[in-house]
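Format notes (please read before filing issues)

Several people have asked whether sequences and structure tokens are stored in separate files. They are not. Every record keeps both together, in the order shown below: the sequence lines, then the token lines. Line labels are part of the format and must not be stripped during preprocessing.
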Amino acid sequence: MSFDLVVLGCGGGPDELNLSSYLFKTCQNQWCDGILSVEAGSGLGALRELLSRDPFIFEDLKVIGKDDLAEKVLDDGSPSQRAARIYSWIRTFLISHAHLDHVCGLIIGAGSTSSSSPRYIAGTETVVRDIDTVFGGQKLWPKLASRYESPASTFGFIYNSLSSFGPYHSLSPNISVLLLPITHGMVDGGTYESTAFFIRNDTTLEECLFFGDVEPDSISSYPQTLNVWRTAAPKIRDGMLSHIFLECSWTSARPIHLLFGHLSPPHILDELMALAREVVSVGRHSTRKILDSQLEGILRGVTLVIIHCKEPITPSNPESDIVDVIVGEVKKLVYPARLGVSVIGARQGMKLRF
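Then the structure lines:
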């Protein structure tokens, strides 16, 4: 086991109470040693609600630690106070792209949270610049972030601009991350990029793969996901990558022209088939076409976690749960392909150890 994860939020909107936000640490560390928040759509409010429903959501994942107040956080104060304390343990917010459903909690809470250690907003230079249009302009929000560590006492956060394609960047205790660009549609006639993260436990060297929002390679004017699969393939073959977090925003009924840079279940199947072919291709020198029959079981041991499901404003069936619907559609398409991959859906408040 390498990672502990608490899903603070996993939705793709429009419900502002449940937006993309995933709290990571290694199994070798404790929560108060420092948390890596991958995305920051939901924040303090969501954490308070989770603690109200389950005050011990962190307890079985070793919330007790070296911090003098860590032993008290589960018992002392209101859910809001406990949430603020746990939220202060986040050392880095790693952002795939600057759309509001991925940064809203970070921005709203920036002026109201504190920490005894520097706190960082990490992402590509484009992500840093985009977030700074909010903090830097001082019209939408106060200037609460800086590129320089020296004024950390004045600004709440320090930007950490990360290069893509390597090297691995150390962001949290025993966690390093490799960034690769992916395409999230078009804007003003150009490509709008998001990011895929290879998140590595530096002790065990095991990794997971986390995608920001991404459109299908099959319809993209600038397909980049295949590069991610080629990087993932040898890690999967060697048993060093077991979990992939991949968005599926829409049901299969969503027309292609209304995907808006996101995936639906048929495209999940396409992408997994592409990944499986890359795994088969590792170390292969033959130029012969890879047959579907050669893909059977090739992704056994891999768990696909579906994230970023968008709640319909007017659901056709009010009793249905959109995560159940989308995950069910993905399973019906993926499982007959016999790739061996397991499919689950992320839920707000879910705890994973893997």
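For reference, the curators noted about this record: The longest strand covers residues 175-187. The chain has one domain: 3-353.
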